[in-house]
Design brief:
Layout (H helix, E strand, L loop, with lengths): L11 H13 L3 E7 L3 H8 L4 E8 L8 H15 L3 E5 L2 H14 L4 E9 L2 E6 L4 E6 L5 E5 L15 E4 L29 E5 L10 H10 L2 E4 L1 H5 L20 E5 L5 H4 L7 E6 L12 E4 L10
Parallel strand pairs: 1-2, 2-8, 3-7, 4-7, 9-10, 9-11, 11-12, 12-13
Antiparallel strand pairs: 4-5, 5-6
Keywords: Electron transport, FAD, Flavoprotein, Mitochondrion, Transport
Pfam families: ETF (PF01012), ETF_alpha (PF00766)
GO molecular function, one term: flavin adenine dinucleotide binding
């Protein structure tokens, strides 16, 4: 299992990936690559289900460039003869694992939602409207997991041993410069318990302030439909849907979102869905637990 981190702490989807890996059977090893990532390695060693932590440190791993990490994963797989390689289906995992699979000359299985056995997985198709059971006959199984479909592994109760592994030779075709993250006191979108999302019905980026104010009162994250992103109302890192982020919060509030099939694919597993739309025929109401047919600018929700 490859671990995503920022040299200080794990990303939440890492714990979901560990749970998925334990369902495959056999011992689970975690590969941690970075610079000065001893703190992360120690954190992983305490996670229940992990038997061994492999640590590789080199300046070339700064920023987690996939072209630098792929040779390391291939080298480690060969050294320890791993039969399965997995990671979370985040933007990072979706970038990294296809490279690894291509180098191994195997077909990857992406965004799985269930592990049936060591060679059989379940994933969604047709924007989440059907399930496909995939039997993978490749000698090395490479797969990514949808974090919202697996419980996070307990961060206590483990006692994995750590082992240093040799860093791979730097590829040097690209260089990590810097990363500028949007500063916000709101929860991260994919891990928030409450998400408030807006669509084209908000009519402008300025009107998203209504959602920001509501989200701040509820300690919620703010998302958006692709229509709102394409219209330039909000940046694309807020997009929820098939081509955006997959969320499954305790509460999802959809405001001014019609409910295109691509958007529903990214949020339909939310525990409770509330929809506000002036069109009573909007598809979003078909998946909503509670619906309000009204002009979003006239409801008292914002008072």
């Amino acid at each position: 299992v490859f671990r995503l981190h920022n040299n200080e702490k794990l990303t939440p989807i890492t714990l979901n990936a560990i749970t998925a890996a334990t369902k495959v059977g056999g011992e689970v090893s975690c590969l941690v690559a970075g610079t000065n990532c001893a703190k992360v390695a120690e954190e992983i060693s305490k996670v229940k289900g992990v038997k061994k932590v492999l640590v590789a440190q080199h300046d070339s791993y700064k920023g987690g460039l996939p072209e630098e990490l792929t040779p390391l994963i291939l080298q480690t797989q060969k050294q320890f003869n791993f039969t399965h390689i997995c990671a979370g289906a985040s933007a990072f995992g979706k970038n990294l694992l296809p490279r690894v699979a291509a180098k191994l000359d195997v077909a990857p299985v992406s965004d799985i939602i269930e592990v049936k056995s060591s060679d059989t997985f379940v994933r969604t198709i047709y924007a989440g409207n059907a399930l496909s059971t995939v039997k993978c006959n490749e000698p090395i199984k490479v797969f990514s997991i949808r974090g919202t479909c697996f419980e996070a592994a307990p961060t206590e109760g483990g006692g994995a041993a750590s082992e240093e592994v040799s860093a791979s030779s730097p590829v040097g075709i690209s260089e990590w410069l810097k990363q500028s993250l949007t500063k916000s006191d709101r929860p991260e979108l994919t891990s928030a318990k409450v998400v408030v999302s807006g669509g084209r019905g908000l009519k402008s980026g300025e009107n998203f302030k209504l959602l920001y104010d509501l989200a701040d009162k509820m300690n919620a994250a703010v998302g958006a439909s692709r229509a709102a992103v394409d219209a330039g109302y909000v940046p694309n890192d807020m997009q929820v849907g098939q081509t955006g982020k997959i969320v499954a919060p305790e509460l999802y509030i959809a405001v001014g979102i019609s409910g295109a099939i691509q958007h529903l694919a990214g949020m339909k597993d939310s525990k409770t869905i509330v929809a506000i739309n002036k069109d009573p025929e909007a598809p979003i109401f078909q998946v909503a637990d509670y619906g309000l047919v009204a002009d979003l600018f006239k409801v008292s929700l914002w008072d």
